## 1
Amino acid sequence: MPQGKTRSRSRDELSEKSGDYFSGAAESPEKGADIRDLFSFQLQRLAGLSTRIAALSIRPKYGLTPREWRVLAVLKYLGEVPLQELAKHSGLLKSQMSRTVSTMIERGYIARTANPEDGRSILLRLSPEGAVLSRRILDDSFQRNEEMLATLSHAEQQILVELLRRVTRTSSKYYHTLRSAASQSDLKSIDEE
């Protein structure tokens, strides 16, 4: 093969790998395994697709972004919490959460009060309007989930949820192991991403 050129894959090779399934990384690198064989890559693709589905469902009907909806939904089950706790449970950086919460406060969906345990922070909770909106979108979200999981039986759906919970627990332990060994500059760069 000439230098500087890469072998182009045939259409069959590409379609075989780009299907809507997870190939399970059963292939060895010698047999042509690539990034699509990684669970984490497939998970990122699914998460991105899920976010786009949510955006097309939520924004036109409710005028919210998926991130704003996630903040409302997480705040609904947490109750009243500081910003940092809301960010942690939402999977967002504190800076992203701060901007999103400010917008939601301005729109009247989130209320804030002084934190009696820490005078430097505030507690966030859903306003009555935010609670009503959150419930309506949650009902729609369950319908979206049914569409996304339509090819799975109820038993398979329960198995999938349990497997994802197990992978999340294992991944969390792995993350904390890596975090404890990371340098301060690496930790800072992660927080800024």
## 2
Amino acid sequence: MHALKADTYRKFGQSTHPITLKGALLDPAFRVVVCLRLCQAAEHLPPGLRWLALLPARLLYRLASQLAGIEIPWRTRIAPGLALTHGRGIVVNAGARIGSNVTLFHGVTLGQRDHIDAQGRRHTLYPVIEDEVWIGPHAIIVGGVTVGKGSRIAGGAYVFEDVPPYCVVMGNPGKIVKRDCTPDVDNRYSEEDLPVSQAVDHHHSPSTLSNQ
């Protein structure tokens, strides 16, 4: 549950069990994150316990997602420190990959894009969102694009090409309007923010995955 501790820290600036529980009860978007992490944790249990824990976790997640109006498949690869601001209307394809300390606002779409080659074969590609990316309200990012570390995608932007690290993108189609920007990350999570006993290596950050 290391990832959930990081998500709690992003949301509230500290991470304790009472704070996580209070946030899950009172904040619909954070409740989705909590239930998503519960599903992911249940999937890694020993086979004898996996389905016993996964079934109720999935039911809770489906209910939380419907109440919040958020569609993020629980199998989506999401590194620690996810922050959903407001949250309603977020839609994420299961094939997308999301790095650590990423912020998603309401109405964000991270979707697939299909390409038909000259031989008529369909190729489906998904976005990679690297660490510390900020994505504003109703922004749309589709296809096999990588949004580089620390970049900011303005509200309403439509992105279908790669974005280098530390860039600001605005407009439809999305254009880079600033380079070398400062990442916008409230309560930036790092391993040092949690006790050593809670810190583990997480090798699934899209900053690394995008090079695989």
